[in-house]
Amino acid sequence: MIGTTRQTPKNIILIGFMGVGKSTIANGLSKSLGFDVLDTDKMIEDRQSRSINEIFANEGEQTFREMESVILNDLVGGTDHSVISTGGGIVIREENIKVLRSMGVVFWLDAGVDSILDRVTGNRDRPLLRTEDPRETIQNLLSEREPLYENCADERIQTDDLSVDEISYGIAETARVWFSTQS
Ligand code: S3P
């Protein structure tokens, strides 16, 4: 919920749709702030020793969602001074939203359908977008998820007209202010 404050560990959490640049921004922030990067998709792949595509193909989305929640819960408590980059569907489960908000300041990287489509076209790593009409799929998923991102986020950043450096700088400065009010 944008505009609310609370005590949390000093983590920066990035949420948002596939293709908005969460991983790139997370890596930039990690360099500039000296924070570790944790990427929930990568952690699932490492733990499972297979790709997200394989997990979706063999066991389906629900099993992937279970794995996603387990990974997220494993981070609780022991994680501080990290940038946590999350999969675009992590907000589907309401309990994940609560966990994410308990772990740090949550930034929603938002983008329009055109830029998302531009960024994901040609990339075969996103099973949910392997459809006949990816634009329509993106539009539908975005309208389902926007209220969930909104509910989870402390800050919303419209990324369409900003460079990676501009986005990273904005997040770093906002997070500094946020953390300075924490004990
Ligand atoms: C998903 C997003 C992906 C990955 C999986 C499902 C989603 O992560 O978790 O393919 O439901 O939006 P990215 O947002 O990093 O692409």
Structure report:
The chain has eight helices and five strands. It has a single domain (13-180), classed as 3-Layer(aba) Sandwich (Rossmann fold). It has helices spanning 22-33, 40-48, 52-59, 61-75, 94-103, 113-120, 134-152, 164-180; strands at residues 12-15, 36-39, 82-85, 105-110, 155-158. A five-stranded parallel sheet has the order 2-3-1-4-5, with helices on both faces. The mean pLDDT is 94. It has 183 residues and is α/β, with parallel strands linked by helices. The radius of gyration is 16 Å and the shape is globular. 54% of the residues lie in helices and 12% in strands. The structure holds shikimate-3-phosphate. Shikimate-3-phosphate binds at residues 18, 22, 41, 52, 87-89, 126-128.
For the largest beta sheet, what order do the strands appear in spatially?
2-3-1-4-5
Summarize model confidence as the mean pLDDT.
94
Which cofactor or ligand species appear? shikimate-3-phosphate
Question: Biggest sheet, open or closed, and with what strands and sense?
Answer: 5 strands, parallel
Count of distinct strands: 5
Low-confidence stretches: none
Q: Distance between the terminal alpha carbons, to the nearest Å? A: 21 Å
Contiguous helical run count = 8
Which architecture does the CATH hierarchy give at level 2?
A: 3-Layer(aba) Sandwich
Estimate what percentage of residues fall within beta strands.
5-15%
Secondary-structure element series: EHEHHHEHEHHEH
3D shape: globular
Relative helix content: 40-55%
Count of spatially separate domains: 1
Quaternary status of these chains?
A: single chain
Q: So what's the CATH class? A: Alpha Beta
CATH topology: Rossmann fold
The CATH homologous superfamily is named P-loop containing nucleotide triphosphate hydrolases
Structural class: alpha/beta
Give me the Rg, rounded: 16 Å
